[in-house]
Amino acid sequence: MHFITGGAFNGKRAWVKEKYGLNGTWFSAYRDHQLKADIIQIESNLLVLEGIEIWLKELTKNYDSYRCLEIWNTTLNHWLTWEKADVSRNLVVVGNDITKGIVPMEKENRVWRDVTGWAYQDLAAKADKVDIIWYGLNQTIKKTGDEKL
C-alpha cells in the first residue's frame, strides 16, 4: 500500500496520475463516492482511494472516536487483503493532512481532526510507502523493501 498525504490543493491527484497512470479504479470522497470496505470484485490491478479525511468525517458524525477507529481499521484490513490477494495489485490511499494548524473550536471538528490523525498513523504504519506532497513535489518519508513501486 502507498499512502499519500499533504495539504489541500497541493497536487496529490496530479502526482498520483503521473506516477500510476489512469488505468485503474478510482474512488473519491470528493466526488461523493461512499467508503467501501468490500472491494473484492475490483478487477483492475490499481485501486486509488482518495479523500480519506472526508470518509472519516462521515464516520465521526455517527460514532464515537473508538468506534470510528474500529470501523476504519476493519475497512483498512479489507483493502490490504484485496491488495495482497494478487502480487500485481497496488493500493494507493490519498488523504489531505488536516492535522496541522489551529485546533478547531467546535468539538465535532476536533474529534474529526483527532480521528483523522489516528487513522493516518494506522495507514503509515501499515503502508509499504508513504509520500507527502507539497506544491506538487513529493517527499518519501517511508519506504520498505517490500514495496512494489
Descriptive overview:
The chain is α/β, with parallel strands linked by helices. It has a single domain, classed as P-loop containing nucleotide triphosphate hydrolases (Rossmann fold). The protein has helices at residues 12-20, 52-62, 65-84, 107-126; strands at residues 2-6, 25-28, 46-50, 90-96, 129-134, 137-143. It has a six-stranded mixed beta sheet, with helices on both faces. Helix 2 (52-62) crosses helix 3 (65-84) and helix 2 (52-62) crosses helix 4.
Query: How much of the residues is beta strand, in percent?
Result: 15-25%
| Computed CA radius of gyration, to the nearest angstrom | 15 Å
Alpha-carbon distance between the two ends: 9 Å
User: Tally the helices: what do you get?
Assistant: 4
Question: What is the 3D shape?
Answer: globular
Uncertain segments of ≥5 residues (pLDDT<50)? none
CATH topology: the name is: Rossmann fold
What is the helix fraction of residues, given as a range? 40-55%
Cross-sheet strand order for the largest sheet: 2-3-4-1-5-6
Using DSSP, what is the number of strands? 6
Provide the CATH top-level class.
Alpha Beta
For the record, the CATH architecture stands as 3-Layer(aba) Sandwich
Mean residue pLDDT: 92
Taking the sheet with the most strands, its summary is: 6 strands, mixed
The CATH superfamily is P-loop containing nucleotide triphosphate hydrolases
